[in-house]
Amino acid sequence: MRAKKSSDLISPTGLIKLMTHAMMGAALGLSFSLALILCNPAVANLLKNGGSQAAIVFVLTLVTTFTIGATLTGVVFILEENNQS
Which keywords accompany this UniProt record (predicted)? Predict the structure, then answer.
């Protein structure tokens, strides 16, 4: 019978990998929101008329969405890597 080894997700290296995925998602969300504002004049006009609060909410929503998605994807990758080794 195999000895049960602890998950790589709970170890310090697993947490660093998760933080890396989260930071990549935040950077991707930030760049996507900037590209969307620059390329779509309708979005830029809405944000201009909505004030600074609208721009902050728009950017934070996209950054948070991308960060959560990248972190969950990182969890799947780490667990699958753990299963293969």
Answer: Membrane, Transmembrane, Transmembrane helix
In the block, tokens 């933080």 appear at: 19
Nearest to 78 by CA among 4, 3, 7: 7
Quote the CA–CA distance of 23 and 7 in Å, as a whole number: 22
Domain residue limits, the chain: 22-84
DSSP 62-80: HHHHHHHHHHHHHHHHHHH
Burial class (CB in 10 A: 0-12, 13-18, 19+), 13: exposed
pLDDT score for 1: 47
Tokens of 1: 């019978």
Task: Assign 18 to helix, strand or coil.
Answer: helix
